[in-house]
Amino acid sequence: MSVTSTGCTYSIDDIPFSFHGSWFNISPVLAQHVRAADLHLVSHKNGMHPVLRLVPLRPANGERAETAWEATPSRLAWIGDPGRVEMVYEGADTVRVRGEGLDLLISPAAEELTPFSGTYFYRDPVDGSYQFTSYETGRRYRVTPLGRSVVTQTGAEGLRAVTRGVTLSGPDGWEAVIEEIDSARPPYAPAADFPTAAAGSALAFREFAEAVAGDAAEDAPAAELAAYVLWSATVRPSGFVGRPAVLMSKHWMDKVWSWDHCFNALALAPGMPALAWDQFRLPFDHQDESGALPDSITHSEILYNFVKPPIHGWTLRRLRERIARLPDEAELAETYGRLSRWTDFWLTARRAPGRLLPHYHHGNDSGWDNASTFDARRVLITADLAAFTVLQLAELSHLAHLLGRSEAAEAHLRTAGSLQDALIEQLWTGERFMGRSPHTGEQSTSSSLLDLMPIVLGERLPREVSDRLAERIAGHLTPYGLATEHPDSPHYESDGYWRGPIWAPSTVLIEDGLRRAGHTGLADEISRRFRALCEKFGFAENFDALTGAGLRDRAYTWTASCYLLLADDHRRRTARA
């Protein structure tokens, strides 16, 4: 089935309007829990910053016009009575906007200008454009009227709380271009007209969607929208982001975290292997001297105060299954070296003297920030960490064999075996896994799904262990998916982050482990329910486990990626059957 962008409309309240490679978007969402009445140009350089407010006006009296927003992957419209304003991306840093029957006011989002904050407005004497210079983003936003547009300016060169901005109008319609620039560039000269720019944007998305979601689209009705979430959240290299990168969102979760990127890589792998490989490698570009990966990366910030779980061996195994071309020997050797250092970090910096199993310093290290697993103590040896490390060592062994390093391959397998033995001997209760303090060895238990995560070991687990884990996991399954805290637990919270809501990564990891352990019926049901959840409620950061409602950030890329991954796996199984 072909993916066509013409039928894909979405709510801009939930998903920003943006373009592949762009560092800015158009949205009413200005910050977490902050939603404006008007659409804004929001930049993600130096953090998330609303820069320009875009307000449709009635030509007769200059008052704000009530409009409805209509968004597709290639075009955004304000629809009023009787006029409309339309916007398309001409490129990653340029939007074209035109109107008929409605004017448009472009003004700074921040009303006040201080010596250290806000947006300065002036008219450039070189080309006659109107420029807004943002302290927060460190960039300029140039507005160039096109054709016979009429421009009314207010407050140019004004300071403090002076009202400033430009109004675009014209009796026969008007058109302008808005660019995000660093310091200066030649005057804008349109390379094509508005319809051609719109057609180019539509084609760019359609080609991406065909590559990423085309095969899954027939049985996955939300595949095209999932592809748009990924396409529109991708930024081009800039600042600390040295590769094309899929941000987790172009809302406030505008970073790359060092496990989120793995799921985006897997979704992109069959259709866009180069972009997928970039996603996998990006955090390794900033690996520190201890071997640790950063917690998160964005345009102007890299954080190392926490890490994220070592799911990269699990990811690389699945990438090898899904990607059309393995890296060449040099790339494979580099990947092996980086993955070895990341594994050694957990076996040295995170393994206490006398302890075989590594530990987390905080729930944030696990990715399950506030899971009830960490209620008794934050510094904890956990079963999920041991399981991920075993899988990473197994993948290192496979890579070592590919590189002809047989002794290293055997050493990795021996270490994996000793860790798995310790996992069963020290953390398995006969019913579920528990945690232990690396200081005292004291035990702690919880009703978190995290304690059941060693199912990711799949076929490596003893049958009696995987059978009991599968029974426990089934107890977390609601009509919508896997609750991260058991719904009967006193710690369950409907919007409790990792204390109840359904999350995409835990769903995919558990589904994969169950399937490899032979529990295919339960794996099929988990996949079906999660796909149905996304098709009904979208691609939120997480979901209410009992109602299915989307929670927090509503345009989260790893959720879209996990949907595409599960849909593609389902399609492949169906084709084989």
UniProtKB/TrEMBL annotation:
InterPro entries: 6-hairpin_glycosidase_sf, 6hp_glycosidase-like_sf, Glycoside_hydrolase_63, MGH1-like_GH. Residues 255-559 form the Mannosylglycerate hydrolase MGH1-like glycoside hydrolase domain. One of its GO terms (molecular function) is Glc3Man9GlcNAc2 oligosaccharide glucosidase activity. The keyword Repressor does not apply. The keyword Ribonucleoprotein does not apply. Keywords: Glycosidase, Hydrolase. Gene3D superfamilies: 1.50.10.10. One of its GO terms (biological process) is protein N-linked glycosylation. Belongs to the glycosyl hydrolase 63 family. This is Glycogen debranching enzyme (Alpha-1,6-glucosidase). It comes from Actinacidiphila guanduensis.
